[in-house]
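During the second year of the project, the team shifted from modelling isolated chains to modelling whole assemblies. The rationale, set out in the original proposal, was that interfaces cannot be judged from single-chain predictions alone. As a representative example for this report, we include one of the complexes processed in the last quarter. Its constituent sequences, exactly as entered into the pipeline, are reproduced here:
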Amino acid sequence: MSTHNSPANVDKLTGIHVEINDEMESVATQFNRSAVPDAWAESVRLVADKRDRAAFQVLYKHFSPLIRAFLLKSMGSGANRAEAEEITQEVLIKVWNKASTFNPAKASVNTWIFTIARNTRIDFIRRNDRNNREIDIEDIWHDAESPEPLVDMQQRRAEQVIKQAMATLPEEQVQVLYKAFMEGKSHNEVAEELSLPLGTVKSRIRLALSKMQILIDR
Amino acid sequence: MVSFHPDSKFLTDFAAGSLPLSEAVCVAAHLEFCGKCRAHVQQLSDLAAQMMVRLEPVVDDNDGFESLMQRIESSDAAPVVQPSSIAGKSAVSATGIPRVVEKLAGGSLQNLNWVKLGNSLRIAPVDIGCKSRQTAIYDIKAGRPMPEHEHRGEEITVLLKGSFSDAEGKYVKGDFVVRYAGERHQPTATLDTDCICLVSLEQPVKARSWWYRLMEPFVQYRLSGFSR
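Output from the structure prediction step:
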């Protein structure tokens, strides 16, 4: 895996943070990385360690049509196909350059690539803004380590729950989630577009999230 | 112990990348103190990623892999990002101020242009090129109150250091506090230490006391026009 300094309470096998407490330990043992394999992690590792072109091509083949699809939806009506193409290339170059920062204990390759695409998109929108001041988007949407370890442990399982629950959502919840996450619209923008009160948008999203065990207090 | 968190709207818009920069900086600062909200943002990113991989793929007619590799190889002198640059580091720096805030302040809060307002308060605007909101760092002297004020727009306060209280309760380091238009309050820093906050204001705060009102045009001038 990676060479970064692991804190003492990281499980050697899984790389997952373990709280020193019986209940937590049992959850951590059930929750083994081999139980939820990430098909793409090995390719990313080969790109990181060996600068492996063939492995990168595998990632390219699978992800570039998806990144392109996401960017065409989320870059706004101002973006044309050529711009979406350019940003897609930028995302893939970052995948190549940042492969060694990928931490399989923390996120799946899907999520890692989504966050790169999201940040590159935010950057693109800012570049077109005349008020733009030189700000590195990665300083804000960064992924430095958390001082609180507990939460990382639940990640992979959460991803499984999300996958399963997504298929059961009613149309009106899918619609708001789609606008928020794939079209990159804020709650306010979604409310305006659908002529719904902000509170309705918020509660639809919260209902959907709670079905996926994403339980945010407010 | 952090007990005030951003709600699902802030976290969702942050994870989706649609939260305006001034608010995003506040959420990012809170995340550096709060493992729970970081987990939520991670879950929301997982959800977004699951949606992305279910999109109808848009295949480009000409396979651009070779030209992409040429681009990569021609710029291969460019530094490859090493994991050590981010992983393993704790988010909050040695000063206790979140990295995101120190970065925006150009390395240290001392580098900002502080404006003194009376004896108990100084304010430093942080220019992040966001039109709709003002972003600033407030430094309130230990035990001193801020002028009582009313909000014309939404105000987000993230406590970076020390603690303060108002009629609603006591707030400590890491807390993410939202006040809405029309709410009126008078925060007071607690006795033991100065209180440093990151503040994102939708519209200028309307101050009630005469001296603050007298100062207001000046403050607004400085807050909005300082760095240009």
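Residues 1-35 of chain A have pLDDT under 50 and may be disordered. Chain A is about 60% helix and 0% strand.
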